[in-house]
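Batch manifest, entry 17 of 40.
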Amino acid sequence: MANVAKRHHTVPQFYLRGFSDGDQIGTVRLPGEQRFKQSVRKAAAENGFYDVDGRSNGPDAFEKLLSGIEGEAATVFSKIDRGFWPLEHDDRDLLAFFVAVQAVRGPDQRRNMEYTAVQFARLEIGHGGRANVASWVKRRHGVDISDEQAAIIWQQATKPGGPPIRIRPDSHIEQMASLVDELFPYLAGRPWTLVRFDRRSLLTCDAPVGLVPQPDDDPWSGVGFMTAWGVTFPLTRKLGLIMSDPMPVIESGAKVEITRAGRPDHVQAGTVKLQRFFNDLTLSSAGYWIYHHPDDADVVPADLPDPRPVTMSMSGAEYEFTGEPTFGSGGRPVVGAAGAQEPSDRPRDDSGDRSDET
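Output type: structure tokens
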């Protein structure tokens, strides 16, 4: 098919150019041994990542839809760069929508979906017992399997890594459509601070939306968009966006429409603390890749965290199964009985309280 986009950017090209010299962007693969420059066109891209076969407008229809959203967002970024702040209502909503899309469009979100599917399958099969594997497959998929096939499924499902489940692009896209609508109010409804840096620079990564926990939160607990003190998004190497706690505005008696209209939004000069605040969150949010302007290689720390392909966790995931049914011979486990819980929708933040740096 003619004009089918094969290279799909999971972080938009226009966005990455804000951290480039116009064509080249510094790239670091965690944990940091690989550091190199590459074309923006090649960064954060995977062939056919959003392809869905059988669409009348081509398998790359969703990639083209994202390109349209990115084009509109690029216009807003340009306005901000030229000094327009606070944003007009429509531009503000568009930027909030773009950040919500960016939070759920990447490989990290798909890996999280796969992790969740793997763990629930592992718990269901494991707690149902070895003898009930065939009946589980029949209930779930409507097919009969042999004893040999059941043995293979049991072995795959109960090993620590779980069964080899892969999420299709269409399933990811369907979840994206739902999550973007859910996340939007928790972005648009916050007061926004635009931080402008002069001498100092920001980094970005393959998952550039950062979450700041509440000051009193347990540093080992998960943090989500609804409960986070703030949300960070490095706009360019010189511009950072903080979407902060809406509670002070609400407690002052102001209506949510005031916040949605951007009335509390303001500009703040960048400082050493704010640079560290942004870049630490970027490093903790990254899955595999850090991106920076070629002149900012010294901003990237020498010691970097290990890759984080999955940014959520479930208690009970390392449960060892004996082969016997946990809940009797019926093989119908209650999901979560081994301590499984609904994981947070974004990375667990192990960095402690950093909210005083704002």
